[in-house]
Design brief:
about 400 residues, alpha+beta, Aminopeptidase, seven-stranded mixed beta sheet, four-stranded mixed beta sheet, 10 helices, 19 strands, about 30% helix, LytR/CpsA/Psr_CW_biosynth, LytR_CpsA_psr, LytR family transcriptional regulator, signal
């Protein structure tokens, strides 16, 4: 039935001439999937066209060297399976806004009960105050999903985990991404050396740009998150400007790359569902695509969510778009828009409310207005950093002399 659905979808979007090839090619490409246990929320979701309703999708970057060759250290020696990248993408119900939340790898979280050891298959105990990047090895992909669900208060029916070479493959599938570098990036750990200016990155170069920590900002994981947001915002601009979301051939290529390079949840087994999620983004204004660093503060040996994290959670739960405090951009030390070849797009400024003319007194028999209007935007405080896809920012590089 899944193969048949794939054929039908490809016929409708790409033409009958390539339908059979596409169906068998995608089926042969796919990796084994993982069951999250909450797929029932997707019953009734259509297979063709932009997906109806909202989407919550968790992207997990694993640092496992298994199957990655010897270019990232000895796979027999470096055997940890850590989710050093954990990102939640939320597409709103009406597809008018998108939030991508990056969770720092050293953030302390609670792990709920009901997780299963990925090695033994046995249920494991809940945990308290453990670093989020340890959850993948403790309970696998479903446990990372459960942990982020508990943290944010939203249901996440879609998930995918990608390793090093998978990131390289996905960046090649989109044709590379042009990024801006304000100061030179020099990182001996990843082999990333970039001069100031604009660079189109694909394959291993894109991977190392996303991995580099020592070569950007203050050398911390928080600096790396900001660097990743520079890349992702540039990617969002590229996909819209290239017309990728309306091009079935390009979408097919990306779906194939995802199937080949990621371990996906059962909910993403059907490539037509991936295409339908991508199509939901075709009309989203770039200024309404927000990349948010989950707000944390330093504690002993790591970071912990601050009170502002609850505002991010509420925005997700209420499906409300967010706006950044301009002071957050002024205080950010990990990005810069000072590249002379790039004109940054400023964050839209909220309109100043005009004075309201006093309304006439209602008639005595008229019902009084008792309900306040629903908020149309969640204003984030200055300790919540990030950017929109409409903003062109540059990576704040860090040379070897500064390390």
């Amino acid at each position: 039935m899944k193969a048949l659905a794939s054929v039908v979808a490809v016929v409708l979007t790409s033409g009958a001439a390539v339908a059979a090839y596409a169906a068998f090619d995608l089926a042969a490409t796919a990796k084994p999937t993982v069951t999250l246990g909450n797929e029932d929320v997707l019953e009734g979701v259509p297979d063709v066209g932009a997906i109806e309703g909202g989407v919550n999708l968790l992207v997990i970057g694993s640092d496992s060297r298994a199957g990655q060759g010897t270019g990232f250290g000895d796979p027999d020696e470096e055997t940890a399976v850590l989710n050093d990248v954990t990102m939640l993408m939320h597409i709103s119900e009406d597809h008018s806004h998108v939030e991508v939340i990056s969770f720092p790898r050293d953030m302390f979280v609670d792990v709920p009960a009901g997780c299963t050891d990925p090695e033994s298959g046995e249920e494991v105990w809940e945990q308290y105050d453990v670093k989020i990047n340890s959850v993948l090895s403790y309970g696998g992909v479903p446990c990372v999903v459960k942990t982020v669900e508990q943290l944010t208060g939203v249901t996440i029916p879609f998930a995918g985990v990608v390793q090093f070479m998978g990131v390289a493959g996905l960046s090649e599938a989109v044709g590379g991404v042009e990024v801006c570098v304000a100061e030179p990036i020099e990182d001996e750990y990843t082999g990333m050396f970039l001069d100031a200016g604009n660079h189109t990155l694909a394959g291993i170069d894109a991977l190392q740009f996303l991995r580099t920590r020592h070569g950007v900002g203050d050398g911390s994981d928080l600096g790396r998150i900001s660097n990743q947001q520079v890349f992702l915002s540039a990617l969002a601009r590229k996909l819209q400007s290239d017309g990728t979301y309306t091009d079935p051939v390009k979408l097919y290529g990306i779906a194939k790359a995802a199937l080949a390079n990621m371990q996906l949840s059962d909910s993403l087994t059907d490539p037509t569902r991936m295409v339908s999620i991508a199509k939901a983004l075709k009309d989203t204004d770039l200024s309404k695509i927000a990349f948010i660093q989950y707000p944390t503060g330093y504690v002993d040996a790591g970071v912990a969510p601050t009170e502002s994290a609850e505002l991010v959670n509420l925005a997700l739960q209420n499906d409300t778009p967010v706006s950044f405090d301009p002071a957050a951009a002024e205080d950010a030390t990990f990005t810069s828009s000072g590249d002379p070849n790039t004109t940054p797009t400023e964050e839209p400024v909220a309109e100043t409310p005009t004075e309201e003319t006093p309304a006439e007194e209602p008639a005595t028999d008229a019902p009084a207005e008792t309900t306040a209007p629903e908020p149309t935007q969640q204003a984030l405080p200055s300790d919540v950093t990030g950017q929109t896809a409409a903003e062109t920012r540059c990576s704040a590089g860090r040379t070897l002399a500064d390390q």
